[in-house]
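User: Teach me something about this protein's shape.
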Amino acid sequence: MYLIPENFETYLESTINEVKNIKGHLPKRDLRFLCFLGMIPTTSGEVLEIGSFRGKSTVALAKSVEFFDIKNKINAVDPFILESVTDPLYKSEIPIKDEFLNNLKDHNVENKVEFFHMKSEELGKIWNKKIRLLWIDGDHTYHGAKTDLETFLPYLKKGAIVAFHDVLNTFDGPVRVVAEQILLSEKFGSFGFCGSIGWGQYIGEPNECENYYKEKLKYYKKLHRLVPYVALNPKKKDTNLMYKLNRALIPHDEIQPNEWIKKVKFFN
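Assistant: First, the predicted structure itself:
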């Protein structure tokens, strides 16, 4: 069983404090969870981020993977074309790519990030590495989120973690894909929610995931109740009372690292 090092919490908090002033759409609860996903490898392989925006999560992940090995790097892909209806508003005096690169440099991780300035589908055509953590925070439409997962699903290492941002937010892509492609998949085992993040552990072998089927179906039914409120209007603000009530029924409190490691399996 994985044992959390004594300096884990100190390193985690220092990483969060370092990136907290980078502008972005990653609340502290989500950021904290993402950081320890980077810090605790459930298997070997690469870390791939889809959707970098200003670089808040990019810097956080680059700092996090150093905890396990100072030589570790991450991969990030973003075309920096804010063309989707689900893209956040961007107001800045400099181009978004320049702001992103400046943030990497300011936090001394420019050499820790292998960046691909292209669409994730284009990267998928040349990608050939096994992945241990896939962080999907790109195009939040259903087509975009589904394509991101399907493109890199063949490269997931046994034990890999797939995490989607904004699953519990008013976008139809992440919530539908987590519900349909993770909770209803016979190849994913442990799963959960933290803040707006939804995650699942890829096992690949249906016979090793059977014990999770009942619980996944239970949460699928809860998660799928959110879809009608977001599917037809991705720009709608989170003001619908029924949406809020149904979201509240899905446990998404802060997860402690020692609780999380009991939920997942570890592989070489």
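Now, about its shape. The chain has a mean pLDDT of 93. The longest helix spans residues 8-19. If you'd like, I can walk through any region in more detail.
User: That's plenty for now, thanks!
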